[in-house]
Every structure is written in structure tokens, then in C-alpha cells.
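Sat 14:20. Reprocessing the chain from the morning session after the first attempt stalled halfway. Input below, unchanged.
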Amino acid sequence: MAEIINMPKLGFDMAEGTLVRWVKKVGETINKGEVLAEIETDKATVEVESPASGVVRKLLVDEGAVVPVSSPIALVGTADEKIEEPVVQLAESTLQKKETVAQAVNAGTSLKPASVSQADSGHAISPLARRMAEEKQVDLSTVKGTGPGGRIVRRDIEALLSHQPLTDAGRMVSALPSSGLSTMKLSDQTLPLSKLRAAIGRRMAEAKTTIPHFYVTHEYKMDALISLRKQFNNLVPEDEKLSINDFMIKAVALTLGQFPNLNASLNGTTVLHHGQINVGVAVSIEGGLLTIVCRQADQKPLRQIAAEVKAMAARVRAGRVKSEDIEGSTFSISNMGMYDVENFAAIINPPEAAILAVGSARELPVMEDGKIVAGWRMKATVAVDHRISDGVEAAKFMQNLAGYLEEPLRLVL
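Finished this time. C-alpha cells:
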């Protein structure tokens, strides 16, 4: 029986996605797990994998169509079976676009590209590269694509930007003396919000105004963990080294096993305690943040956590995200320790119940047995939905987390 492939729902607030490119064509064989198409959401370009093996029998929507989540986009089955084509629903923006094109054709007019990034550059262009070209006002006729079939990809835009000459403002800045007041005149500049920035704004505004946040901060002794990490990293290749964040993911996952209220979601008047502990990790990308998901982190060794997080972060930054990379988190970590941040508070990622904000591990003068000595300390702040939990439970969570961070051998046993 033919398998219907639907537009996936990638994230709590996703309503629709744009079908950017069909990777497989009608009549081609596809195996379960192979990439069928690329879709673009407000946050990322995502590869859609086929949930079934067979032959691509029908592509139900055109490239460029905006499709509501859960709507059918393709059929995969055997080569000779009879198939019944499902009804396809297109988003209003696609229908309006089709109507505009039809009106233009009937009027005998031509449609010009809406922006430089959509102009004919001689090659295809990835959605992420297209968005970067629009934001940076890049003339695509000057870009040589290095992707498959000459496709323009993100690295091509970045390479061009890195070799562009200084703008007038840049030359003025470089010519400034090393001391004294600046004489450079600045003018107002209005910039449009990117899709990602707008999506983050909507989501965070809703979270902050509808979720009653409260915060608990704890300072952790990090001497043992930093020593253990150093010993481990001295024994492994560069690409297998562990970060402090890898230890945090494992420690948080193990601690959450004791606090189901913090590994939960609110669903109306009921609270869902998730059966899996899937830790989301905020990753910085061009123009914003995405959360990647380490699934069942409590069940995985540190080296596996580190390898998976590195691979997912690389895919995110290359614009080649898989749907499972960014959906399904049950608790999130936002770590700004690498930016020399002492402490901060994060906004809860709905529908999750809590998020942990992690600062820098710092070597400080501390009191030990009545003496001032050097010691490594790190602050972290948990933000919790007060509808689901309270301050005492959050404080106990932070205390129990200390047991793993301050005795890190418990993370490798």
C-alpha cells in the first residue's frame, strides 16, 4: 500500500512550510531514511526523509509551494500498485501567488524577480544562501556555486562577503585614530527582520507574556569536572574532545530523571510527564538561534552525546538540518559560557516546563577551610513555569545537579 508523506511539523509553533526542492523525482527508487525533499520554515531549511522504502509514485505539490503542516506532499509505493491521490491543501500565500501569476499571464505581462536573490544567476541556490543574499544584498550574478550541480550554497555567499572591499563606513572606521573622539558621522538605517528573527520574536514574546516564569540560581564547584575533562581530552583526537556543555547535557538529563515535573509540558489543565528525556541545546546561527535535540540523553555515554551534538550543530550551520535534529525536546539548555558570561536568565521554550541558562566556568579566589585559594566556579539559572512547578522543587533540582557536576565520575560510570 502506498505511503503518504506529509509536511512535517517542526516545532511547537510551526503552521506551514515551503517545499523548496524535490531531491527525488517521480519513478525513482527511495529507501527509508533517504532524503526526499527540502523544506523551509521560519527557522531553517530542513531535509525531509522518507519513512518508507519504494518508488516515488507522485509528487503532490510544486517546488515553491507553501503547505500547511500534516498535509500530503508525496506518495511512495510499489511500481505497479494502483494509488488514490489524496486531496492537497495549499497555504493561502501559495494560492495568492498562483492567482497573481494567472492574472499577469492573462494580462499579457511578465513577472520580474522580487529580489536580487531570486534573479537568474545561472544556477540553483539553496534557501539558506538565498536568504543570506537577500539580507546582505549580494548580487548573485557575481557568485560561483560550489554545491552539487553548481548550486549556490551558504559557503559561496560567505566566501564572497569575506573578500568584498570595505564599504565607505568600513574605511572610515579603519582610518580612525587609536585614541580620541570619533568624527565619523552615522546615519539612520532601517533593516527588515529576517524570517528567523521574526519567528524568534513571536515565540519569545508569547512565552514571556503567557508563562509565569520564576528563576533559581546556583553556583557550582567545577574543579573536579574541569580536571576530568582535561585528562580525557589529553587522550583523544581533536574531533573527539569533550566540552563542558557535553557534561552539562548528561548531568541535566540524569537529574531530570528525578524531577518529572521539569521534564514536562502543560496541556490545558493536564501536565504531560514525558517518557523520554530529550535535551535541547541552543545553537547560534546566522541571524539567530536554533535548538538541536539530544534524544534520550540520560541513556547515552558522554562521547556519544558529544559526537551527536557536534554533527547536529554542523548540519544546522550548513543549512542541512534533519527534522529530528530540531524537534521533540523536553527540556532546554542555553549555554553562553564560551562568551565570558557570568550569569543570565533564559526564556522558556514552549511547551517545555523549564530551561537552564549556563554561564562561564571561572577561576576565582574562594574560601576553603578558612583560607583563600583559587577555585573554579560556574553559575547557572533555571527558569521554570510556575503553573507546573515551584521554587522548592527547582531549588532541589539545582542541588541534585550539583551532585553530578561536582562529582563528575558519576557521569561516566
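Confidence is low (pLDDT under 50) at residues 107-122, 166-174.
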